[in-house]
Design goal:
Number of strands of chain B: 0
Largest sheet of chain A: 2 strands, antiparallel
Helix content of chain A: over 70%
Oligomer: heterodimer
Strand content of chain A: under 5%
Helix content of chain B: over 70%
Number of strands of chain A: 2
Structural class of chain A: mainly alpha
Strand order of the largest sheet of chain A: 1-2
Largest interface: A-B, 28 and 33 residues
Radius of gyration of chain B: 21 Å
Structural class of chain B: mainly alpha
Number of domains of chain B: 1
Order of helices and strands of chain B: HHHH
Number of helices of chain B: 4
Distance between the termini of chain B: 63 Å
Largest sheet of chain B: none
Order of helices and strands of chain A: HHEEHHHHHHHHHHHHHHHHHHH
Shape of chain A: globular
Shape of chain B: elongated
Radius of gyration of chain A: 22 Å
């Protein structure tokens, strides 16, 4: 067997096995180099897998050579390929470029531990995207969550600790709910394999345990995905985590939970309950709409840059779920494309925050007043990413919001209402992005700052700036040439809807 | 099935709620973690209960024994993994509580929240 056939296993194995190696290397520079190399390799593997999926269709890989229902199968279809690209891409870019941002926050003697935890998060998140086994998802989810808690607690502010504690409690409850749900499904079907479950639930006569399982799994994953009103762990965790961690997590961690949610609800449960789609929609659509409204409204009044962007993430999770809750091909395409595009926009914004933080002490809007004069490239990239978040035509954010609106208009009265909410929230986004832009370009630094402070603030370190511009420009690229995310999303939507009547 | 025959499932539900209540209602972080452990232990019980086959014995193949009824070993293996996860979570949580105590001088959640609010007020 050639190495190429083993790529699905290597996707998880490379970061997972490099993690202990990074601990042994100790030196911060060496540890960073090894972690970046492993992460870049994972990204390359994800690109290779996506190319295979696009040309030959879904890949199935039997772990250790054990055949399907007995062994663990790794499945890569269009949806998991897209999520894999997000996870590994976000990790590679932030890790390669973000080192300067970490240097200030952390003592060099501890950085190798940080990089090891990072790789474990990467392995866990890509494992969730790749595996075809429900219990394996739980294990990977906890692997990535535990390491995520470590990364967030590495923030320099003491509030990072309390934010992590909150996240730990809520994250564990979410994962345990998921575990109960998987247990109930296993009790009734005797299988843990997604594909096998889908077939065997049909033979179950007593549907009540499965129904309870669906409830537990949906709520548990909604907690992990920060669906309103289960989002309260998110703002604190994003705000106080080290900046490069925020950029990485904001780009992909909630999306991985939504990915599993879609997989369970559309593939496993949908074909087996008559009214599942109706229940799914009536449960999630109101939460999605409320999340959009509340997230955007709260973001409008925030004074702290990271907290503002974190609440905007709550609203964006709402968009993704809203598309899914239309339960139509157009809606799911929009939802999945928005996962991709939002990751680009939010990743760029948080990278810009990291760049600013290397030069400025505080991250309140007052602190970044007039920063554009001293950091013109950072400010321009941030404005560009902000435009994509708002959905200005020509940026990636516009493409998926447009798809979402189109999908909404297919849905009758409920669709019109959602379209109104989406437009209102976009206007709110215009407002809060404008507040950032206004502060950067037109604000005057507080009188306390002297001329010496002014001259100390220069452009961000070049690796950070290069990564930032790479992501910001890809927002433009995928806004003008959206074929890759759209093709993947359309294929994924068709795949997810195969059990719909 | 009669109500008492589901004895284990009743215990599962009660333990789950006891743990959940402790997590929600107690401001003390150590007590929250204790509640979380009870909450997880309830799920362990659910898995272990479901693998029991009536009249089944430990799933070990022995010489000379044919047609023995075995309990299902798979949920036990699964829950062993979940127990490890639970221990790691508790350990990490306790380590966090130690650091919170060092940074704040208290492990009561309402008090740390108050201190946080004072801190953000003074920043303004």
């Amino acid at each position: 067997m050639s190495l190429v056939q083993q790529l699905p296993a290597l996707q998880v194995a490379v970061p997972l096995l490099t993690a202990p190696l990074v601990i042994l290397l100790r030196g911060p520079a060496l540890a960073w180099a090894a972690a970046s190399a492993a992460s870049a390799m994972a990204f390359a593997i994800a690109i290779a897998l996506t190319a295979t999926v696009l040309s030959q269709g879904a890949i199935s890989y039997d772990m250790g050579g054990w055949p399907a229902p007995y062994g663990i199968t790794l499945n890569i279809d269009a949806l998991s390929a897209l999520v894999l690209l997000l996870v590994t891409g976000a990790s590679a870019v932030t890790l390669l470029c973000g080192r300067a941002s970490l240097g200030q926050a952390m003592d060099p003697g501890r950085q190798h531990l940080f990089f090891a935890a990072w790789l474990i998060v990467l392995a866990g998140l890509s494992g969730i995207a790749i595996t075809g086994d429900a219990f394996n998802v739980f294990v990977f989810m906890e692997i990535s969550s535990l390491a995520t808690y470590v990364l967030i607690a590495a923030g320099s502010d003491r509030r990072a600790l309390t934010a992590t504690f909150k996240y730990l409690i809520m994250g564990t409850i979410g994962a345990t709910f998921y575990l109960i749900g998987v247990g109930l499904v296993y009790m009734m079907t005797g299988t843990l394999n997604f594909a096998d479950m889908e077939v065997r639930i049909a033979d179950v006569t007593d549907h009540r345990p499965i129904l309870v399982a669906a409830g537990f799994i949906t709520v548990g994953l909604a907690l992990k995905a920060a669906v309103f009103p289960l989002h309260i762990w998110l703002p604190g965790a994003y705000t106080y985590a080290p900046h490069m961690v925020t950029a990485f997590l904001a780009a992909c961690s909630t999306k991985v939970a939504i990915y599993i949610l879609l997989r369970f609800d559309f593939l496993v449960f949908q074909g087996n309950f008559d009214v599942h789609a109706v229940r799914f929609v009536t449960f999630l659509a109101p939460l999605a709409l409320l999340g959009i409204l509340v997230g955007s409204a709260v973001a409008m009044v925030q004074g702290h840059l990271k907290r503002l962007l974190a609440f905007s993430s709550v609203a964006q999770v709402g968009y993704i779920l809203l598309g899914a809750s239309f339960a139509s091909a157009a809606g799911l395409t929009a939802s999945i494309a928005h996962m991709f595009n939002h990751a680009l926009a939010k990743g760029a914004l948080f990278l810009a925050v990291a760049a600013i933080a290397t030069r400025v002490a505080g991250l309140r809007l007052d602190d970044i007043a007039g920063i554009a004069r001293r950091m013109p490239f950072t400010a321009a990239a941030m404005a560009l990413a902000g435009a994509s978040l708002v959905g200005i035509p020509g940026t990636a954010g516009f493409v998926s919001k447009w798809l979402l609106l189109q999908a909404a208009f297919e849905q009758g009265a409920f669709g019109i209402m959602s379209a109104v909410v989406v437009v209102a929230s976009s206007l709110a986004a215009v407002y809060y992005v404008w507040r950032i832009v206004e502060a950067m370009y037109f604000g005057t630094p507080a009188s306390g700052e002297t001329a010496t402070a002014d001259s100390a603030v220069a452009e961000a370190p070049w690796p950070l700036l290069a990564g930032l511009w790479l992501v910001a420009l890809s927002n433009i690229y995928f806004g003008l040439v959206p074929s890759l995310p759209i093709t993947l999303s359309e294929t994924a939507a068709i795949e997810l809807l195969r059990n719909m009547p | 099935m009669e109500l008492l025959g589901l004895y284990n499932y009743w215990v599962f539900a009660v333990l789950l709620m006891v743990g959940f209540y402790a997590v929600i209602a107690r401001p003390n972080m150590i007590k929250k973690l204790l509640g979380l452990s009870i909450f997880q232990a309830a799920v362990f019980l659910l898995y272990i209960t479901m693998d029991k086959v009536e009249g089944g014995t430990a799933p070990i193949i022995q010489k000379g024994v044919v047609d023995a009824i075995y309990s299902n070993p798979l949920p036990q293996v699964l829950i062993l993994t979940a127990i490890v996860v639970g221990i790691s979570t508790t350990a990490l949580g306790l380590a966090l509580v130690v650091r919170i105590y060092e940074a704040y001088g208290t492990i009561e959640e309402d008090e740390t929240q108050q201190l946080d609010m004072q801190q953000s007020d003074s920043h303004k």
